[in-house]
Structure formats: structure tokens, C-alpha cells
Write a structure and sequence with these properties.
5-stranded antiparallel beta sheet; about 5% helix; about 130 residues; RmlC_Cupin_sf; mainly beta; metal ion binding
Amino acid sequence: MGYHLIDAADLDQWDDRPTDVRSLSVAAGYDYQDSKLGLRVYELSPGEQSGLSYHYHDEQIEAFYVLNGTLHVETPDEEYVVEADQALFVDPGSPQRAFNPESADGPVRVLAIGAPSVDDAQEYDPSTDA
């Protein structure tokens, strides 16, 4: 058996993304690649996106659970507005870009879940869908 109590406030910036991101799953000892679960906390200031450009995943399911603020997720068909205590699930192959608009009143704090945790993100160019 194994248990891992992690406090996101104790973690350093996870990678070189231009926004604040802390990897809870890596801190618990789960590999970034080929783990069953990836769990990260993002804090996006107005005008910031989650670190990835417009993209989709080949096999990873993503879920964004908003802890505070309002997250915007752009898709080819619509823009989702995800409020605190709401979750948006994104199936594999579904392009999206998660961001906090420049016009936002403050930061948004999001728990991002990816399963499995694989580096399978593919860039998406919305102009090719026209």
C-alpha cells in the first residue's frame, strides 16, 4: 500500500511552461510518461493559457476542474466557460485551448487531470478546419 499527502503550495514550478503549474502526481512519485494518471494545478493570470497551444491528445482524456475563477476553453465549435466547482471533460482527438482571457477580473485556479499521463499532445491549427 502507498499513500502520498501532497501540498501544492510546497511544490516548485513543474516545468518550463510560462504559467504557474505544479504537478501533484509527479510529486507523489508517479512518472510523467506512461503513468495511469497525471494531476496538476494551474494558476492562470489574465491573458495566460495553460501552457499548451491549441492542441488535442491522441489517447489522453483531460478534465479541467475549476477551483477558483473562470476558465475559458476554446474548441472548433464553441468556447466553453467553466465556473468554479464545474468540470469540463475533453475526449481524445478533441482540439482545445484552455485560457484565462485578458479581460478577466483575476486569476483562475484549475485542477487538470490527464489519464493516462502520456506526452501525446498534437498541435491543432483551427484555420485548417475552415
